[in-house]
Amino acid sequence: MEGEPPAVVVPAGRPEYGDYQVNGIMGAAKRARTNPRELAANVVDELELGDVAESIEIAGPGFLNIRLKPAFLSAQITTTALIEKTTQPQRVVVDYSSPNLAKEMHVGHLRSTVIGDAVARTLELAGHTVIRQNHIGDWGTAFGRLLAFLDEVGDEAAQDAELRDIEALYVEASERFEKDPAFAERARQMVLALQAHEPSAIAKWEHFMALAQQHMSEIYARLDVSLRSEDIRGESAYNEAIGPMIADLQKQDDVLVESDGALCIFMPQFKNKDGEIQPMIVQKSDGGYLYHTTDLAALRYRRDMLHADRVLYFTDARQILHFDMLFAASRLAKITDVDVLLEHHPFGKILDKDGRPFKTRSGDNVLLRDLLDQAIERATTLIHDKNPELDSDQREVVARAVAIGAVKYADLSKNRLHDYTFDWDEMLAFDGNTAPYLQYAYARISSVFEKGNIDRTQCSEPPRLETEVERQLAVHLLRFQEVIEQVVADARPHYLCSFLYELTVRFMRFYEQCPILSEEPPIRDGRLTLCSRTAATLETGLKALGIRVLARM
Ligand code: ARG
Description:
The chain is of the alpha/beta class. Among the domains are: 9-68, Gyrase A, domain 2, CATH 3.30.1360; 140-227, no CATH class. It is built from 20 helices and 13 strands. The chain has a 4-stranded antiparallel β-sheet with strand order 1-2-4-3. The protein has a 4-stranded parallel β-sheet with strand order 6-5-10-11, with helices on both faces. Helix 17 packs antiparallel against helix 19 and helix 18 runs antiparallel to helix 19. Bound molecules: arginine. Arginine binds next to helix 11 and strand 10.
């Protein structure tokens, strides 16, 4: 019924309460003006859960606690870890990473890259068609400065300027721009030359872009990020589309309004602190376009050419207003219909242990390439201490998976809306909610199969679930599908991290309390099934997060 509170069935808060808890009854009773406990009793009478539930208890003011039957759990267990594809697949555009390439990739690009990639992979796992879009910043005044500066240092130097120097070059170029009016003029001329598509300026720009994109792909490869060069569609790709878009907008009444020579969209819901409407400027009085002009053109492209049903954007929280205005303008100007879902998924900052923005000692941005070097160095030492028997090739593979996994997981496991503290020791710890803890559990399970010389994929004996730790593990395994669906709906990978962590905790309890290989066949094989489903779930789940598992660590 319209407005009726949903019947909320959630995993029980504590094992003593059973496995699942029904929360919607109190709300329903209030509306129906009846006694909630009486209503709960009626619900219990009506429920047909005979094959599923062992007990249904009414608790507190009108909760229901449900405990599942071991036979039901046991029968379900062999299909866990296999995600059922959605029956309503969508075309989902995921706009993520999208760095501004006038600068070398630094830690400020990490969250969008890692979170966006995990969400893209999870959407695919659930059966959606994902179209990755790397909306790189590759156009505008910053490139005028940079190219004017490269011109000055001479062609040869520019050729040699490996990207490692770009950060320094950009800083120097910006200083020159501030201090040297003649240089500032040359930089402005360069922007004009680019806009006019002058071949020599475009050639310089292309040369620089090739270098910058090369660097970007190297970082993605090291980070195991699934963005490919065909996913790049930068700001410059929309240059040609903006003019026709503005012409189309002008054909509609009341969308574009001229104000002080600029073309603006006025939306009454966006006011500045003095209560005046803050317009969205689509074209400046000098004819120039802005960040959101390009984004409007990108939305048209995503609707017309990519046929998007849903568009997700991952940027930090400073861009919330930008996207609010963009989405509202896009609806107003009928660029996207209400049936195209537009979602901005913002995230907080990365802080150091003292709660300050995470920077180098000298106060610069931490470059991603340095950060990854350091992660691998630390993981290599760690793995060497943990397992000195690994030969150096194996150690390299393990260290890399652990390092990258740790950096990504530290970010993914936190609610993305909050700021998070970057802490090497914490993210590389082998216990707690970390990637190494999960990877290590996976390696342990693999070693059980190796020791027993058993093929993990051939385990199908239903487990007996006679002990409580086994039951708890089985109940949790059954939740994988629902967790994946939650990540798909809310674009919050930390749900999946929490699920995998809790799975590992439950597995370790089982592993410590229940012998496996030494048991007689039916018990042994049933327990192996639990091991096999746990390993498969860890593998699929971590893969959806962009993290590798290893059979040996
Ligand atoms: N390049 C932008 C930045 O670094 C992020 C772009 C996000 N995507 C978009 N379509 N606006 O802040």
